[in-house]
Amino acid sequence: MTLLAVASPARALVCRACAAEYPLIAQHACYQCFGPLEVAYDAEALARVTREQIEAGPQNIWRYAPLLPAGQDPATRVSLDPGLTPLVRADALARAIGMTGTLWVKDDSANPTHSFKDRVVSVALSAAKGLGFTRFACASTGNLANSVAAHGARAGVPSIVFIPYDLEQGKVVTTAVYGGQLVAVEGSYDDVNRLCGELTETDAFEDTAFVNVNVRPYYAEGSKTLGYEVAEQLGWRLPEQVVIPMASGELLTKVDKAFEELVEIGLVEHRPWKVFGAQSEGCKPIATALHAGAEDITPVKPTGIAKSLNIGDPAAGVYALESVRRTGGWMDSATDDEIREGIELLASTTGVFAETAGGVTVAVLKKLVASGKLDPAAETVVYNTGEGLKTVDAVAGQVGPTHQVKPSLRAAREAGLL
Ligand SMILES: *Cc1c(COP(=O)(O)O)cnc(C)c1O
Ligand SMILES: [Zn+2]
Asked: Does 310 sit in the ligand 1 pocket, CB within 6 Å?
């Protein structure tokens, strides 16, 4: 079945590797070369979009519907209406790491299920509905599970979510509470993903949209809103540098694509931008390839506390390399201790409590400044993609009450509080 979406600017699915074209169906890999498929748009439809039109739209990602493949008609949306999250000026953080230019934190933990995944899921499931699917699913490193289960609950559509069995309790509970099926798989995320790929080929799953498998091209487009939104919040201006966490690498490539589109259709003026990628030491296949000057990604077995980023065989890795090389950015990685420090540094300087992925990104930002790869004087946006309360164990051992006193003035005085 082809996507039913009235007024959608999407034109076709195009292979990112060989440029073969396909209709807008539920397919994610090219039949000719197995390359990943991406949504292509009608250039004239995009060129008609204006700032005024977007500004008059709803206070969520759907203000960018004229630039997305699905959800133009509100009645066709499957959505928790995420987006328009705070862009926080982070002067104290900038000072702490030696930056003199303006630093912003895009705090995408402020979404309905507390991560940027609500953006991609809203777009994927709106497309899935237009493609006739009647059940929602995903392979998840944690946050996607939360979001798919919540979207299913809101829409009254059954969901079945697959996760690695050793996920943080804070991500298991915040998925299970929505009441769908939750399958803990005895393996890594990459095993979960492979299983989900096999399930989509079975008759029993014919009615099921796996947001990041068979409808992945639509899912990926949702990430563009994190680029559009930053540009709009800066007063229709591009930042000079962005620092983005990478799991599959998709988010990074789509923020870059969003900036390109905005320039192409004339919604912002061209200003060169550099894209920087962040991974953890325990799972850095994309950064390793960049540092080695390699064209291909060698898969790894992920370890470490940044579980939401633990994809050892990243689907968009080579395209993330391409974005970073083309724009003159760089990538780096953070150890578990540096991730914990990053979480505390961000919280204590901006009042934003990030999950481990945010700790990775802030730690890598700091490293990039120290190594001179990132210009400390240029306007920079660092993306926090998830909420600290979901991975509270990461820092629970190192922060706590600074004092413990009996409930009396005397005790307070003895403890040095007055
Ligand atoms: C999924 C996820 C990412 C990375 O997403 P990709 O598009 O797969 O690179 C980053 N941060 C958090 C918190 C995530 O859950
Ligand atoms: Zn191809």
From this structure: no
Residue with CA nearest ligand 1 atom 12: 385
For residue 208, what are the β-bridge partners? 135
Establish if 406 belongs to a structural domain. Answer: no
What is the DSSP-derived secondary structure letter of residue 252?
H
Neighbours of ion ligand 2 (CB under 5 A): 15, 17-18, 20, 30, 32-33, 35
Indicate whether 124 and 268 sit together in one domain.
Answer: no
Distance 92 CA to ligand 1 centre (A): 26
Beta strands in 246-311 (DSSP E): 274-280
Q: Considering only CA atoms, which of 283, 371, 296, 360 is closest in space to residue 330?
A: 371
CATH number at residue 248: 3.40.50.1100
Same domain? For 160 and 228 the reply is: no
For the entire predicted model, the pTM comes to 0.97
**Domain carrying residue 238:** 87-113+223-396
Spacing of C-alpha 10 from chain mean position: 22
φ, ψ for residue 96 (rounded to 5)?
-65, -30
Distance 150 CA to ligand 1 centre (A): 18
Is 136 within a domain?
Answer: yes
Residue 115 in contact with ligand 1 by CB distance below 6 A:
yes
Domain count, the chain: 2
Q: Is the CB of 285 under 6 A from ligand 1?
A: no
Residue numbers of the chain with a pLDDT score lower than 50: none
Q: What is the pLDDT of residues 283-326, one digit of tens each?
A: 999 999 999 999 999 999 999 999 999 999 999 999 999 999 99
